[in-house]
Amino acid sequence: MATRDEILNYCDSYLEIEKFQDYGPKGLQFLGKAEVQKVVTGVSASRDLFEAAAQAGADLVLVHHGEYWQNLSQKVGAVRKGRLKILFEHDMTLAGYHLPLDAHREIGNNVLLVKQAGFDLDEVPFGVFDGMNIGARGSSKGMELTAVVERLEKLLGTRALVFSFGPEVVKTAGFISGGGDSGLLEAIDQGLDLFVTGESHEQSFHLAKEAGINLVFAHHYNSEKLGIQALGEKVKEKFGVEHQFIDVPCPL
Q: Which of 104, 135, 144, 252 is 20 to 30 Å apart from 225, CA to CA?
């Protein structure tokens, strides 16, 4: 049987969390039982996820978006109390990995998006944030934009918002999962055919149109499913524990 501390130490080290200045605490956020037989992964901390994890018999919950964020109130009000009550009652540990899981060059959201969308991973930095390469870019001999979008939609279970302002045949693409819309300017500067992110901003429409670049919004939640699932599978392989990804659909 694996221990909580062994698993968390592995995740912290594997994702190199000490390299990142993040928006909230990295790694452990709520301490539960010491021994772990089952790990549940999910994109975002929520009451729905915690209830489903408890029903599934989880000892440890790993998420991409944790419970604590610098720009949110740190008070334990009604919403947070309801969430923490579930963790208390079922003695479940909660750990969150945000930017480290976006950026990881093996199981990070963006590297996986590049590869599973059908591109070869480029080593050119893309999506640089606070000195760290968060995003990823890829290249191909040429794929129809419609084929790339269909592949992403099937992979992520999403209905993407697509603006076809660039070439119909895509050879270069940049990816920044989640709220990475600010990377559009970087994609334009690098002369990419396609930029993929999760959320949109109003000004991006005209920027993309005037620059002649294809723009795809795959939704914040859906664009960040891959990394946390891959982390759960890594933990399963390393420690021999059970792993279950719980999808809590979010339209945003």
A: 144
Q: How confident is the model at residue 171 (pLDDT cuts 50, 70, 90)?
A: very high
What are 173's strand-pairing partners? 138, 194
Topology (CATH level 3) of domain 2-97+225-244: 3.40.1390
What Å distances lie between residue 191 and 137, 160, 166, 185, CA to CA?
12, 22, 11, 10
DSSP designation for 17: G
* Confidence (pTM): 0.96
Q: Where do we find the tokens 């059908």?
A: 118
> Taking Cα atoms as reference points, which of 117, 94, 108, 111 lies closest to residue 230?
108
pLDDT of residue 247: 98
Superfamily holding 102-222:
NIF3 (NGG1p interacting factor 3)-like (3.40.1390.30)
